[in-house]
Amino acid sequence: MKAGWTIAFAGIARREVLRFARQRERFLAALVRPLVWLFIFAAGFRSVLGLSITAPYETYVLYEVYVVPGLCAMIQLFNGMQSSLSMVYDRETGAMRTLLVSPYPRWFLLGAKLVAGVLVSILQVYAFLGIAWLWGVHPPAIGWLTVLPALLLAGVMLGSLGLLISSTIRQLENFAGVMNFVIFPMFFASSALYPLWRMKESSVLLHDICALNPFTYAVELIRFALYGQVNLTALAVVAGCTAVFFGGTVFMYDPAKGLWRKRPG
Amino acid sequence: MTVSPGARLTGGAPDLAPALVVADVSHSFGAVQALKGVSFSVARGAFTALLGVNGAGKTTLFSLITRLYDSTSGQIAVAGFDARRAPGEALARLGVVFQTRALDTDLTLRQNLHYHAALHGIARKPAEARIAEVLALVDLSERIDHRTGALSGGQQRRAEIARALLHRPELLLLDEATAGLDVRARAEVLALVRRLIRHENVSALFATHVMDEIEPADDVVLLHRGEVLARGRADSIAGAGDLTSAFLSLTGQAA
Ligand SMILES: Nc1ncnc2c1ncn2[C@@H]1O[C@H](COP(=O)(O)OP(=O)(O)OP(=O)(O)O)[C@@H](O)[C@H]1O
Ligand SMILES: [Mg+2]
């Protein structure tokens, strides 16, 4: 099994894609959500919000242009939470046991499953960006390429947060709970819908909360990358949070401690 | 992954290590002590029955052997590899059939088996050949492109046994592999496991609470409330009577 790491990863990714291909509704749902924002809300908010020029934008931008990176991150947020919930389901159906009897180390197995899920979410993001392009949101050509690593990193951060949540908090094992207590607060209290400076004008507290929300940095990382730039603060925060969340997950799944001791799989 | 020095408990040739050694293993879930100083071993090529009623600790023991979690104390070695210090080497030598069915019912048998082969680092091409081989062994070759959810209970069990065999393990762990099957399917699974031991060079630890499944020449480990009450050949445990009365008297339930 020495050379088999890539084989194992490919197998895990293939399963993720096969499962995903069987759930076309999920793909559509994941696409409809941000499109609703883009088509309906952006059209309505357009007149309400006068945005000034903020990096990475070089001109005044319309609201729909501003909101697209946040919606990309939203796709990844939903996907991360959904795939971590499916891990809980996997734990109950025994699929998790099947995964964990593999001779590869546990951090690798969990990480491979996580990255496989992120790859699927990236397909969704590109599909969304394609439709947004038709709608008139035209990031520079290079952005389509430079956004890829940002999506990968942001996806892994959100996915490992989902994993950590689902492995620690039993009450959040259904989607409604995750929606109310994780997805909505993270999404709304972030820079996805309004820039932080705009928040500050109405509420300093809200601004501070948004500035503490890791999702804000995922959004900004994607936003800058989509315009061919690197936001170093965002990069550092997202990388740091990824390390913490994933480390926590591996700890929870460590045979010597954590979750398996308390609960049978 | 390389073998860390000293990972094997026994020195000497690897082939001499028993398929499984469980040495003084105890495990608690909070206040519940599920296993108390359990010791036994499974010889190479042996069919060993782990006999115990509900709650005896069979599944807990399997979880420890597969290192789903670590035991509170004691040592476990698979083919000489310590489950805690060399988990990769130990797991590579284990084939497991869990008590609860664990196939991906949305996917086909082929897809399920390829996934498992990949988890053991077997590339697609050799996996293809090996999948054909193991499916022939369990008599499911024609079902290869069926969704596993569409298979009968007995077929699913055989599919799981095929999956457990894919990576040529040295020890099969079967947790009540015949539970929920009718008489015929039950007999088929049992006959299959015995045949595998003769021809596929594996050993088996077969957890069950059904005494009829045990033959006189089988090794038996009698587990009761987390303790090993007896171990040895079934006929020697049974003595003059049968296994059931021996079991009842050992567990203090005889008249
Ligand atoms: N995750 C857990 N948390 C708390 N207690 C547990 C857990 N798993 C098992 N137990 C307890 O440990 C004991 C042994 O359970 P185990 O499942 O190993 O028995 P078993 O022999 O497999 O039984 P069965 O024939 O019903 O499958 C039981 O008292 C059970 O309640
Ligand atoms: Mg059990």
Mind explaining what this structure looks like?
The complex is a heterodimer of chains A (265) and B (255). With 265 residues, chain A is mostly helical. Chain A has one domain. In chain A, 77% of the residues lie in helices and 0% in strands. Chain A has helices at residues 5-21, 24-48, 63-93, 95-100, 106-134, 141-168, 175-188, 196-202, 204-212, 214-226, 232-252, 259-262. In chain A, helix 1 packs across helix 5 (106-134), helix 3 (63-93) packs antiparallel against helix 7 (175-188) and helix 5 (106-134) packs across helix 6 (141-168). Chain B has 255 residues and is an alpha/beta fold. In chain B, 32% of the residues lie in helices and 24% in strands. Chain B has helices at 58-65, 87-92, 109-119, 124-137, 153-165, 183-199, 234-238, 243-250, and strands at 20-29, 32-42, 47-51, 73-78, 81-82, 94-97, 171-175, 203-208, 219-224, 227-233. In chain B, the strands form two sheets. Chain B has a six-stranded mixed β-sheet, sandwiched between helices. In chain B, helix 4 (124-137) packs across helix 5 (153-165). The N and C termini of chain B lie far apart (55 Å). Residues 1-13 of chain B have low confidence and may be disordered. The structure holds adenosine-5'-triphosphate and magnesium ion (MG). Residues 29, 32, 34, 52, 54-60, 99, 209 of chain B line the site of adenosine-5'-triphosphate (ATP).
